[in-house]
Amino acid sequence: MEPSQARPLGLIRRLLIICAISFVAPTQALYFFLEGGTQKCFYEELPKDTLVVGNYKAEQFDANVASFQPAPSLSITVTVDEVFDHDHRVVNTRGSSEGRFTFSAADSGDHRICFTPSHATASHGWLSSGMPVGGVKLTLDLTTGETSAIESTDKGKISDIVQRVKDLNARLHDIKREQVFQREREAEFRDQSETTNARVVKWTLLQLVVLGVTCAWQLTHLRAFFIKQKLT
Hints:
The protein is α+β, with helices and mostly antiparallel strands. It contains three helices and nine strands. The chain is rod-shaped and about 140 Å long.
């Protein structure tokens, strides 16, 4: 094969490899820069019932080391508005410099996703390296429609919740067993009480019968005694 024919074939192979890699990637990862408390927005067109999960990480520029470093005092406000529905807001959350947000598209159309940093040092200049002084670098990893990937990332949390539910069920079974035991003891105590009361009633009736017989015998004896004394 001639060198002039080999070069186009090699170029085509490289393009095919790049296209294949781009189709395999399940998420959209990007980063952009924010100035102080300036809001940064972008639009995403989503079909109906699409689940969107975004993971973000914000870093603030440190002039001492001339690089972006994590800032614990930095917070990010995330808002998502449905442009097609008169800017109806579906997400409005404020978190730390690293967090996550989730929403589902109620209908097909454009969605405006905005990020606003706060407690960041305002920038007033540029260094020789071209980095903003006090600027914020926000890295965003957006997953759309990948429910299986989302479920796989949440597998640990779901397993923890399932384990807690199992523990609660076990405790409920223990409480139920204890209640059954208490009912059995209560029924046994009730039976003993009823038996004791029946015996008391029988003994009382027997005493009344004995007293009645004794009284009748004494009356009869006294009557006979008085009659005998009267005759004599």
